[in-house]
Amino acid sequence: MADRGRSPRSSVQNCRLLLFFVLSAVAPCSMLMAQGTPPAAVVDGLDPSGGGNDLDALLDLADKDIGNLSQVRVTAPALQAEVSTVSRQTSTVGRTPAAVFVITNEMIRRSGARSIPEVLRMAPGVNVARIDANKWAVSIRGMNGRFANKLLVQIDGRTVYTPLFGGVFWDVQDVLLEDVERIEIVRGPGATVWGANAVNGVINILTKNAADTQGAFVQGGGGTEERGFVGARYGATTPSGTAWRVYGKGFDRDTGRLPDTYAHGHQAFDQWSMGRGGFRADWSPTCCDKITVQGDYYNGQAGSHSLIATPSAPFSHVALDNVDVVGGNGLVRWTHELGDDSDWAFQTYYDRTERDLQDFDFREDRETFDVDFQHRFPLGWRHRVIWGLGYRNLRDKTRGGFALTLDPDRRSDDLFSYFLQDEITLCEDRWYLTVGSKFSHGDYSPFEFQPTARLLWTPSERHSIWASVSRAVRTPTRADENVVISQIPDAAAPGVFPTVIGNRNTVSEDLMAYEAGIRVQPRDEFSWDLAAFYHQYEDLQTFAMGAPFLDLGPPAAFRVPLTLTNDGRGHTYGFELAANYELTECWRLFGAYTFFRDEYVNFESGSSPRNQFYFQSSWNFCCDWEFDAMWRYVDNLPGQDIAAYNAIDLRLAWQATPTLEFSAVARHLLDSHHLEFGSDTFSGNQSTEVESAVYGMATWRY
After folding, report:
1. Which residue from 498, 620, 503 is spatially nearest to 557, judged by alpha carbons?
2. How far is CA 387 from the centre of its chain?
3. CB of 540 within 8 A of CB of 509?
4. pLDDT recorded at residue 387
5. Residue 164 and residue 364: Cα distance in Å, rounded?
6. From CA 568, how far away is CA 600, in angstroms rounded?
7. How confident is residue 120, by pLDDT bands cut at 50, 70 and 90?
8. Are the CB atoms for 125 and 141 separated by under 8 Å?
9. Which domains does the chain have, with CATH numbers?
10. For residues 535 and 569, is the Cβ–Cβ distance under 8 A?
11. pLDDT value of residue 69
């Protein structure tokens, strides 16, 4: 009914005008300025043809039934996924000017994978190849290998790449997968905030807050290759409000299969067994403070089947070695909120690792102590500034033999770093510019700066377009400067050992990266993400052959020195495409394609596939049943003499009760065995074939 003294039409106009002001408060600036088509993500039902002005389109909503307004979609779910790795502060995928991919806990569960490298296979742009039953080659955008050294990997903010060679020993990087909240994968440089080694990408594994892991969890199973595994966790909250959990897990995995071309008479010796336990506690003593304390300990053996050099005839022998691996870590993180857009965080951790290769007569004991501080605050309404500083101390003690040694056998190094980054709002809800740089100096590299500039355009809640240019470096490591590796002599020159020798004059490898990408979610059910890149490398490490000489030892040996130098250069380019489509509430499809090319001078290539496909179908049927089918294609590796292959994995799960689940997983079903990577020249490690496998599992949550 109209108010007295007002016509019904006048009241409707007032309501429409009020609705206009409400909607304009959430509409982007360019919409109000009539600079383009109103985005469907802001308000469904606006005329996209542009035939009328935006004010009329908004006012026309008042003529609709009020019940329809509750169905207006104002967000794009895929673009709203939380990420924090790119800028060290919480953001969303849609607001991130970088090639980022998030693997959620649900994706991990439904993949059927039992290790972190297997989980990473579903991410576009990531190269994952199993070398043997406990070793992987993992990289992003090329340069793959067991000792790939241009990828930064973190677990809950703790850096897990080894300063020995700048890469990752994947056989000791493990967590209870049930407790992983998400894995954030950044393709391209992340060095501006994370520093050296974040060259081709960053992988950040984030576990759940202890408050989200309350109650009991038990899981166990076994099969053909996964001979047996068990994991358990229990979480609770103290009367003072501190949430905590403890966990333990263990597994025993079978060996791979030696290739038919390998000399007969030997069985593969790459079995793998490991036990691990740990804890986490999260406490909020005040409304503005959050404190996390966590730690882990592991102990196990990883088999190694290698062909190594010996000083006497026949100058080589097969080393079947159970590598003893032991380690532990402890971490403390304190975050304090200063305001809605301001906080600081302090983190420190201690990490100790031990690795004993008895047949190599090589052992490394390493200790890492790290301190990190960051502060985030707004500067006016246009600037969001974050800065920080860090210190890291690295200590190692080694024992070496004829095949592998470090000279000197022990060393202590310091690394200091600082970073500053500013996100500038050029136009609210439209244009953002991020600029910043990392600065560092240490014992391996006197001074490095790694700047970036990233531009983001969000024409609507359902579209984001970005471009960036960045510089990143891979600083020298302990092995680069101090390693001595005796390789097996050529048959034409028995007793003359090619010898890799470190060089204290090596400099950092340099990358200039140019990237661009687009993300679109036209409907809640469908989204896609495309990223393209061009990487230009300088000062890549290669080898310079010197004149043969007699090493008096002991033991005495003729050597041909292969000294590390920085004479390599090259470029890579390609693109990565990923798409999600929910056909129904019970059926989801996901696909990814990676296109990659590389060209180098004085540097080996061919260790990364040119084409990769991944496709997954996840279907819930009959209320309590789940069926997942995964297919992947990996192109050939010409530098490794590895043929292309297809693989299919299947998972079937039954939710017997609200707390009990049974599942069966079959992996690598299209062939009985295949190679994914070649044997390693430097360490002599023999690659083995991946075999098809089946395992069953029971999971209880309470």
Report:
1. 498
2. 23
3. yes
4. 96
5. 9
6. 7
7. very high
8. yes
9. 8-74 (no CATH), 79-701 (2.40.170.20)
10. no
11. 29
Q: Are 172 and 158 in contact (CB under 8 A)?
A: no
Omega before 259 cis (within 30°)?
Answer: no
How far is the C-alpha of 672 from the C-alpha of 693, rounded, in Å? 9
Distance CA 218, CA 702 (A): 9
Structure tokens at 202: 């960053």
Mean pLDDT, range 179-192, rounded to an integer: 92
**pTM beyond 0.85:** yes
Q: Are residues 112 and 200 in contact, defined by beta-carbon separation less than 8 angstroms? A: no
Tell me the β-bridge partners of 89: none
Tokens 């989200």 locate to 212
Question: Is residue 481 a contact partner of residue 443, using CB atoms and an 8 Å limit?
Answer: no
CB atoms within 10 A of CB 619: 15
* pLDDT given for residue 72 in this prediction: 30
- Using alpha carbons only, give the angle 102, 334, 195 rounded to the nearest 5 degrees: 55
Q: Which two tokens stand for residue 54?
A: 């935006």
348 forms bridges with which residues in the sheet? 332, 371
- Alpha-helix residue ranges (DSSP H) falling in 170-298: 191-194
Task: Report residue 65 as tokens.
Answer: 């039934």
- How far CA 511 is from CA of 87, 150, 470, 474, 530, in Å, comes to 19, 10, 8, 8, 22
Instruction: Give CA–CA dist 317/263, Å, rounded.
Output: 12
The closest alpha carbon to 648, from 625, 615, 678, belongs to: 615
Q: Helix, strand, coil % (nearest 5) of the chain?
A: 10, 55, 35
8 Å CB contact between 143 and 608: yes
- What b/e sequence results for 459-495 when a residue is b if at least 16 CB atoms lie within 10 Å of its CB, and e otherwise? bbbbbbebbbebbbbbbbbbbbbbbbbbbbbeeeeee
CA distance 422 to 425: 10
Region 207-213 average pLDDT: 97
Q: What amino acid occupies position 211?
A: A
Q: How far apart are CA 388 and CA 420, in angstroms?
A: 7
**CA-to-CA distance for 136 and 124, rounded, in angstroms?**
17
- pLDDT tens-digit map of 682-699: 888 899 999 999 999 999
